[in-house]
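Troubleshooting: if your tokenizer reports a length mismatch, compare your output against this known-good record of 292 residues.
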Amino acid sequence: MEKVYYKKSLTAKLVLERDFTLESFGMIQDFISTYVGVSTRASFDHELITYKRKTIGMIRVSRKNVVVALGLDPKKIAKKYKVIDASSVKSYAKYPTKLFVTNKKSLDNVIALLEKLFEQEGIADKKDKEVVDFEKVYYERTFLELFNQGYIKQYVRNVSEKKEAKIIEEVSSNKVVEEENEDLIEDVYHKVTFNAKLVWCASNQADDLYIINNVDNWDFAKAIKMTKVDDNTFTAYNFFKDGTKLEFKICRKQDWENVEKGIWKEEIVNHHYLVVNNDLEVEDLIHNFRID
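Known-good structure output:
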């Protein structure tokens, strides 16, 4: 069964999660930067830890937590570090010692094992840490902004409901699966495309249209500005979490004085959907606007 997914990059996950996720990521990066010759190389959904062109570890974000995988033998790591043996999974073959950073203790474990890794690789020279403001690097943005900037990508995948449920169960119980399968347990978002057409008395009566919705608490500062396709047709899209109870109205200015009205200039109820559980395309025929 084909299903649409939205794959979040490492940047997108750090921007959206923030808090301890971003804090622990920054502390790990700060620690790595104090060793001469060690660096990180970013790709779409992870960073590789390298030393003299050799890859010795990987950093990801999964299930709202930073995940660190290191080129250490997990069978030789003391139980107190609570590592996961990922040696049987292809995507972790080079760095089979895997840790989830869920609290301060697990963050300390990562730092301790990084020290062991650097010692194993003969890395001893140290320097002052690089000063990086990670709050600025990963400044706050919405899902829509990240999608438009290329940090979130849409793809279609053939996964049966039975297989998807099995993967989610495995990931939830900390069984090791391939990286691409871990994303199936992330927050699911759906794309909602809004199409508006001005008809009747509203024809040619708006240069701009804005969507206001309940998810943003009807805040005009967060209104979605629609793109004008022709004199009477507008379109826009946004993303909402799976299960969202979506309601919206459309205004021609960012105020309630310009809200859409019905055929007889009557107030209309909010456009609403029980839940957003798939990508949706909705159409709104606007007959009138409020007359001052």
